[in-house]
Automatic annotation (TrEMBL), chains A, B:
It comes from Nocardioides perillae. It is found in: Cytoplasm. The lineage of its organism: Bacteria, Bacillati, Actinomycetota, Actinomycetes, Propionibacteriales. Residues 86-187 form the CoA-binding domain. NAD(+) binds at G97, I98, G99, N100, L101, G102. GO terms for cellular component: cytoplasm. Homodimer. The gene is rex. GO terms for molecular function: DNA binding; DNA-binding transcription factor activity. This is Redox-sensing transcriptional repressor Rex. Belongs to the transcriptional regulatory Rex family. Keywords: Cytoplasm, DNA-binding, NAD, Repressor, Transcription, Transcription regulation. It comes from the Bacteria. PANTHER family: REDOX-SENSING TRANSCRIPTIONAL REPRESSOR REX, REDOX-SENSING TRANSCRIPTIONAL REPRESSOR REX 1.
Amino acid sequence: MSARNSADHGRDIPEATVARLPVYLRALTTLADQGTSTCSSEHLAAAVGVNSAKLRKDLSYLGSYGTRGVGYDVAYLRYQIAREIGLTQDWPVIVVGIGNLGQALASFSGFRSRGFRIVALLDADESRHGEVVSGLPVEPFDDLARIAREHGVAIGVIATPAHAAQDVADAMVDAGITSILNFAPSVLQVPEGVDVRKVDLSIELQILAYHEQRKLPVAADVDGVGEVSA
Amino acid sequence: MSARNSADHGRDIPEATVARLPVYLRALTTLADQGTSTCSSEHLAAAVGVNSAKLRKDLSYLGSYGTRGVGYDVAYLRYQIAREIGLTQDWPVIVVGIGNLGQALASFSGFRSRGFRIVALLDADESRHGEVVSGLPVEPFDDLARIAREHGVAIGVIATPAHAAQDVADAMVDAGITSILNFAPSVLQVPEGVDVRKVDLSIELQILAYHEQRKLPVAADVDGVGEVSA
């Protein structure tokens, strides 16, 4: 894929490769947990679900080529990828919108283990303020700028309803937050230099549906066009 | 990307294109809501964040080429994509694991609007059984097979802790479920013919961190290697 991110200046790592690095890291962590110290590109590629040529190409952007006949050093490759992504740093994160999803995110162990430290939970609902969720008090949304400044927050997570998401994004941008992870089902307008990643919980379901449809008999295709026939 | 899904027999749509179809659909829905009846490939491509050549190539797999000087008919293209994905069908879905994430998924409006009908919520915790979440009672996990059979469930969503995910996946497979959306931070082993899509809530954050790191001065790279210098 040739898509590039405006913030990715200098280094020439394709966006598709960037998107796979966390997946490689997760697979390597599993291997390390199993006590595996080295692995072949074929083994790692299989664990991740890409072909080994693509894996080797991806890792070559990190200057990592493995050792012929030995493969990759799991511990060192983990470090290389973590450093490349930036996970060797500490990333203070705030979450805005402490409904079920926000609470799920606040309690998600996978953030902390990867260097993402949730430093504050914000909600506009006064009745929630002071409530403690996963060890953090729910704070007023109006305090976003102060909280972001105090903690040096670079990444903001939006877990509000769709109608509130743009206002939250605007406030985050005003507060100097330059990376936004948006769980709300809405498209956000942000200025140049601010990165937004969107998580649409239904998109993975739609991809499953595409394949599921192809397991069904033609008759199941309600409009009868027979899209599912080979 | 050349990655193909084992269940995608017959039609020759690359996996990367399949992954973009729901994104195009979302953009087209936004355009339709705005009263737009036709749009150029450039406009749609910009709304989605791909280049227009890639967009035209993707849509050509659907046999949709637009009209020179006019562009694409928004309503018809929406129908073509929805039919291709299978959203013109009704997809009964069950969710296992009714913690904060499971509750967030149960109340997520974006599923129903795309043909995904959550027909049952299951949890192994007896103390939750009978509790009503988003209009559905929480039912015993042990009833999974009966419930899946009664509703003709094809897609199962796992929102349990990591340690429980494989057991849930095994039970889903035994119950004849052939598509699994896994929110648990664990790698699932499933037989051939069963599709698993994994949602790792931290991966999008890691992609943001990669770009965020490149906005920081070199000094912020704690190991001092200066990866962020252009």
